[in-house]
Structures are given as structure tokens and as C-alpha cells.
Amino acid sequence: MSTDRDESLPARDVARAFGAASHSYDAAAHLQAEVRSELLSRLMLLKAPPQAVLDLGCGTGAGAQAIKKQFPRAQVTAADLAPPMLEVARRRSRFWRRIRCAQADARELPFETGSFNLVFTSLMLQWVRPLDAALREIRRVLKPGGLLLASSFGPLTLQELRAAWAAADEGVHVNDFIDMHDFGAALQRAGFAEPVLDVDRHLRHYADAAALMRSLKAIGAHNVHAARRRGLTGRHAYGRMVEAYEAQRGAAGLPATWQVVYAVAWAPEALPGHGPVAGEALIDLQQLRGQLGRRR
Questions:
Q1: CA-CA distance, 135 to 150, in Å (whole number)?
Q2: Is residue 98 exposed (0-12), middle (13-18) or buried (19+ Cβ within 10 Å)?
Q3: Who's near 101: CB < 8 A, 6+ residues apart?
Q4: Strand pairing of 75-80 and 100-103?
Q5: 172-192 burial by CB neighbour count: b if 16+ within 10 A, else e?
Q6: What whole-number distance in Å separates Cα of residue 62 and Cα of residue 210?
Q7: How many beta carbons lie within 10 A of that of residue 109, not counting itself?
Q8: Exposed, middle or buried, 27 (CB in 10 Å: 0-12/13-18/19+)?
Q9: I need a surface site. Which of 47, 125, 161, 229 has the fewest CB within 10 A?
Q10: Which of 197, 217, 195, 196 is nearest to 206 (CA)?
């Protein structure tokens, strides 16, 4: 169990926000589906089918379902902090493609050391504080030579909304997101072999600020920062934010940037010079960088 203390994103509030969005999530999470699809495409880097897979922060279970379809013989575990999300994920599971579901805090995973060949986590790690604690746990539950595929939001995410609120008051209205270089450094601190990271940028447009707010609430991604203002935001502050945001309006509407960081990293082999055991996959670093480069 980690001794780190960082309650800037209280786990209880994160779980409550995403739990409340469990029934609206799939209909609203278009960007999340795109990012998940991109991350799933990187499964082609595996040279051997994994025997045991963890989808960490599984949400409604779409990623776990896709992995089970691609690797029907693998034992796939879907884990999430929010019980209502897991209820939706359980309903995706079928007896011929059974997925195990488990409630779990990424900072203290309820799995034995060396349980998985692959950990897949899409757009979850930005909701965990401290990140180092989660990455150490992921490293712990990976088998030697196991693979981590991860995506997270970068610091430019919702920069337009952040700037609009900054013009309105001094409160915290948008969650903080980790920089790619800090993410890479955290992976190395957690004991992963040379991580490979790259960044993508998505620009979405909304009819108005209220439409963006509704979209964020529908996917559970609204502000849960511990320093956020409790209760209703004042009418005047909200009006100033809307006015500042409207100044950024373009022909397509109000812009909202989503910066996505992708990471691929390996758990080192337990003993130098030993090859992977059955079910594990080793991928050449230069080969991976070349394949990712050709995808861009």
C-alpha cells in the first residue's frame, strides 16, 4: 500500500461523478471511444496472445469486451472505482466471452503480484492522485516482460474553458492534467523499461458553454478537484466566464481542445538474459518507435 498523500482529486468524488454518468456515458463519450480505439489498435504490437489482461478504469467495459473478442482465450478482468460503471460492464459480459469484474482503486489494486501479461488503461490515469502510486501498482501486477498500454489527457485539455474561467474568477474550475514528459518520468520511477510516449490533439466544437458543461457531466468528467468551489457558482462569475469563452467562438462554434498522451511501457524481465515465459510478449523498442511513427 502506498504511503503517498495527494487528495487533490478525492477518489470518493471521482467514483461518485463517474458512477452518476454510468447510463449516459456510452452515448456521450465519442472522443473517449476514439481514443480507446486508437489504444486498442496498438495491441497489434503484441507478438504473442496475452493469457491474463487487466482493463483498469474500464468504465462501461467496452475496452474489456473488445480485448476479449480479440483474445478469446485470455482471462480478461475489468476493474473500475465506480460500482455503477461495473454494473454496466457486467451486462456486456456473455457466458461465451466471460469478463471478470472487480471494484478497485488504482493506487491499491486487489490483485496478486505478477498477475497480468497486459494492463490496458484508457483515459483513467488523469483522475488518479498521486499518479506514481497507480503506476507502481500497475508495475507490481504485471508479469516480468508484461506490457502497459495507457492513454491520459494532457495539460492542454480544455485550455479554452480554463482560460475563460480564469477571466471570471480565481477559483479552480478545470481539473489539472499531466504533461507527457512528467508522465514518462513517472513511468520510469515506477520501474518500467524505456517508455514510448506520443501526443495527439483533438479539437471539438460546442454550440455554447452550457453544451460543453452538459457533455462533461454526461461522461462524469466535470470538475472534482478538491479546491473547487462548493455549491453553485455565482451568476456573475458564470456570466463573465461565458462572455470570455464567447470571445473564442469560431465559425464551427466554441472550441474545446482535448490533448491525449499515449504511453507504451514494459515491466523488465525478472532476470537478465532470460527470455519471456509462455504468454508474455517482448517488443523491440526501435521497432515500436518506427511503427508508431508510421501511424502519424
A1: 10
A2: exposed
A3: 58, 61, 77, 78, 79, 80, 86, 89, 90, 93
A4: parallel
A5: bbbbebbebeebbebbeebeb
A6: 28
A7: 22
A8: exposed
A9: 47
A10: 217
Is 231:217 a contact under the CB 8 Å cutoff?
Answer: no
Provide the grid cell at 230: 462548493
Q: Could you identify the residue written with the cell 456521450?
A: 28
Query: Residue 202 is placed in which grid cell?
Result: 483533438
In angstroms, the CA 28 to CA 30 distance is 6
Nearest Cα to Cα of residue 147 among 101, 111, 116:
116
Task: Please state, in angstroms and rounded to a whole number, the distance separating the CA atoms of residues 254 and 244.
Answer: 11
Q: Are 89 and 41 in contact (CB under 8 A)?
A: no
Place of cell 496478486: 112
Query: Which grid coordinates belong to 295?
Result: 501511424
Task: Name residue, grid cell 495507457.
Answer: 150
Question: What size, in residues, is the chain?
Answer: 296
Q: How far apart, in Å, do the first and last CA atoms of the chain sit?
A: 39
**Amino acid at residue number 166:** A
pLDDT in tens for each of the 296 residues of the chain? 344 556 665 677 777 887 888 888 888 899 999 999 999 999 988 879 999 999 999 999 999 999 999 999 999 999 999 999 999 999 877 755 789 999 999 999 999 999 999 999 999 999 998 999 999 999 999 999 999 999 999 999 999 999 999 988 877 778 889 999 999 999 999 999 889 999 999 999 999 999 998 999 998 775 544 344 544 456 788 899 899 999 999 999 999 999 999 999 999 986 444 444 344 344 444 555 555 555 55
Question: 11-157+175-205+259-295, which class in CATH?
Answer: alpha beta
In one letter, which amino acid is 153? F
The pairing of strands 100-103 and 142-153 is unpaired
